[in-house]
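User: Let's play a game. I give you a shape written as tokens, and you guess the letters that built it. Ready? Here's round one.
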């Protein structure tokens, strides 16, 4: 009976799709071992280069399809940075555009069959979040000196409450990279796990698999929106953190 439960029935492992595996066999992974994460991160970079560098290299007065997509993405992020961080924030627009494109393309590639969603791993999202956190913190001190600490002192609040609010603001500030990274990784992992569960049901129910297939289509459609929304949220939070570094008293 134990053997039957292991080989048949509802033997669904939705988290297996997030396992890091070496590309060329074996089970051990080291710092320099090429893995499925390496592969799909590399493909993400190649897609970004193709979309933003190669496709629009022949600029036309009437843009083609790929040039139009590149221009829309460029203008969208440019306006986001300008609206939130101000014109001074446009100096850091190339970096923010790169972050947005990497998260967006990695999320979209993760929807392909047999793909790997690199942004579902906290190691990837936490690295990006920590780089952003330390960058804006250093930038805040470089641009404002010790006045950057005014970000934690709520001068508009009653004097008696200011120390308490300062403690809350400091804790909130240092929690930023945690929430920044977990929000993206958690959403990517949850959606893909749900799809895998429904796919497992569809594989064992036979004729009765119509309902799971319909559910997969519904969740897949929702996930198509989520991957774009999460790229937007990750980027807009980056812009908010940049604004705090440039204008700590606003």
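Assistant: Ready! My guess for every position:
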């Amino acid at each position: 009976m134990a053997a039957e439960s292991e080989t048949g029935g509802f033997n669904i492992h939705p988290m297996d799709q997030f396992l890091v595996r070496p590309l060329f066999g074996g089970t051990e992974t080291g710092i320099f071992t090429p893995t499925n994460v390496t592969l799909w991160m590399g493909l993400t970079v190649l897609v970004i280069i193709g979309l933003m560098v190669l496709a629009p290299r022949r600029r036309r007065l009437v843009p083609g399809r790929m040039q139009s997509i590149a221009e829309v993405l460029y203008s969208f992020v440019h306006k986001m940075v300008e609206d939130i961080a101000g014109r001074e924030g446009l100096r850091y627009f190339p970096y923010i555009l790169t972050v947005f494109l990497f998260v967006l393309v990695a999320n979209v590639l993760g929807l392909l069959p047999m793909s790997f969603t690199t942004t579902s791993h906290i190691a990837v999202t936490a690295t990006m979040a920590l780089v952003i956190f330390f960058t804006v913190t250093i930038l805040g001190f470089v641009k404002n000196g010790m006045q950057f600490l005014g970000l934690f002192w709520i001068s508009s609040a009653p004097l008696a409450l200011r120390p308490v609010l300062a403690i809350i603001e400091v804790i909130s500030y240092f929690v930023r990279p945690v929430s920044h990274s977990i929000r993206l990784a958690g959403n990517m992992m949850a959606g893909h796990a749900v799809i895998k569960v429904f796919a497992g049901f569809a594989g064992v129910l036979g004729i009765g698999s119509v309902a799971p297939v319909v559910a997969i289509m519904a969740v897949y459609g929702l996930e198509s929106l989520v991957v774009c929304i999460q790229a937007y949220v990750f980027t807009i939070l980056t812009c908010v953190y940049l604004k705090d570094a440039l204008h700590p008293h606003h």
